């Protein structure tokens, strides 16, 4: 087994975790930081 194969599953798991954390942060910013301000910044 090549060294890259060993990290393939780890990479996918890490990517999924990063995406989940990013969405949680975005939702928290919208809820806590004033939804109108954040939405105005996001969507111009």
Characterise the protein shown here.
Helix content is 89%, strand content 0%. It has 44 residues and is mainly α. It has one domain (3-43). Helix 1 (3-32) packs across helix 2 (35-43). The longest helix has 30 residues, at 3-32.
General shape:
elongated
Q: Helices and strands: which structural class?
A: mainly alpha
Q: Report the sheet with the most strands, covering strand number, pairing sense and barrel closure.
A: none
Termini separation: 49 Å
Radius of gyration over all CA atoms, rounded: 17 Å
- Count of DSSP-assigned helices: 2
Number of domains: 1
Low-confidence stretches: none
Keywords: Membrane, Transmembrane, Transmembrane helix
Provide a brief overview of the structure.
This protein is an all-alpha fold and 44 residues long. 89% of the residues lie in helices and 0% in strands. The protein has one domain (3-43).
Topology:
Blueprint: H1 3-32, H2 35-43
Helix pairs in contact: 1-2
Which key terms come to mind for this protein?
single chain, mainly alpha, 2 helices, elongated
């Amino acid at each position: 087994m090549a060294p890259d194969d060993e990290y393939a599953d780890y990479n996918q798991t890490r990517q999924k975790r990063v995406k989940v954390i990013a969405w949680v942060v975005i939702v928290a910013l919208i809820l806590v930081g004033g939804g109108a301000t954040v939405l105005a910044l996001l969507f111009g």
